[in-house]
Design brief:
Elements lengths: L3 H7 L2 H4 L2 H10 L9 H4 L2 H10 L9 H4 L2 H10 L15 H10 L15 H10 L9 H4 L2 H8 L11 H4 L2 H8 L11 H4 L2 H10 L9 H4 L2 H10 L15 H17 L2
Helix pairs in contact: 1-3, 3-5, 5-7, 8-9, 9-11, 11-13, 13-15, 15-17, 17-18
Length: 262
């Protein structure tokens, strides 16, 4: 026997206008709302029932209900990304935006103007998805707390942080923790910081490419880089790329990595 939503999908006008059938159908499969008659897509109880089952059903609600804060809030509470289906007039509702970015940080892009952005909103977004920093205003790309939260999960966002924070050791240290190669986005001063460069090359030896010339010619720094990533030897300077000890280390490291995977 066909389920209610299958009956609705395969039925005609009578089925699409049958409120009882539509209500049962959307309770079974929320996106079955797409098959309902327009007047039932404008029925708040039906639409809320559909959203309860599948928040994405909001996209099939009437234009009037997409402007209804109660309906949109119900959808966003279940799935932040559904805010994109709401009428654009609700994108300026800060509470809805906050609920949305808490579940999908990239929805920060929906903010119709940058004045809506405050630290709590931007922090919620970048904590959920570090890459949301790209949708933040210039002001927040220069906010240390915001940028620290962003680079903690997506080191490459250091690239779009303010120049001041690209020169902040705490921020760069957090960024290179899981991706040493983002050292390339640090300021020239910090690319010459021995402690930070050591941390970067221990995470990924090829970060050596972005260190200062002085440190690329430092035997201990190059040793750490090669021990982590043998091919990084090609980035060494001062004749170290042809150093016999380091060449032997590179061979041994390749064998170790083949045997152990690290």
């Amino acid at each position: 026997m066909d389920s209610p939503w299958e009956l609705l999908r395969d039925g005609g006008d009578a089925e699409r206008k049958d409120r009882g059938l539509v209500l049962r159908a959307v309770q079974d499969e929320g996106i079955a709302l797409q098959f309902a008659a327009p007047e039932l897509q404008d029925d708040r109880e039906v639409v809320l029932a559909a959203i309860e089952q599948d928040a994405d059903a909001l996209q099939y609600a009437s234009e009037d209900l997409k402007k209804c804060r109660e309906v949109v809030a119900a959808a966003v509470a279940r799935e932040g990304a559904t805010l994109r289906f709401a009428d654009e007039s609700l994108w300026s509702d800060r509470d809805l935006l906050l609920a949305a970015v808490t579940r999908d940080g990239r929805l920060l892009r929906l903010a119709p103007n940058l004045e809506l952005q405050d630290q709590a909103l931007v922090l919620a977004a970048v904590r959920q998805d570090g890459d949301a920093l790209q949708f933040a205003s210039e002001e927040w790309r220069g906010d240390k707390e915001v940028v620290l939260a962003s680079v903690a999960s997506s080191g490459e966002t250091l690239q779009i942080a303010s120049q001041e924070l690209q020169d902040d050791a705490d921020v760069v240290r957090a960024a290179i923790r899981f991706d040493g190669q983002v050292l390339k986005f640090a300021s020239p001063r910090l690319r010459g910081d021995r402690e930070l460069v050591m941390q970067a090359v221990k995470q990924h030896g090829c970060a050596l490419e972005f260190a200062s010339e002085e440190l690329r010619g430092d035997h201990n720094v190059v040793w750490q880089a090669v021990n982590r990533t043998p091919r990084s030897l090609k980035f060494a300077l001062g004749g170290l790329a042809e150093d016999q000890e380091l060449e032997e280390l590179a061979r041994d490291a390749r064998c170790r990595i083949q045997e152990t995977g690290r």
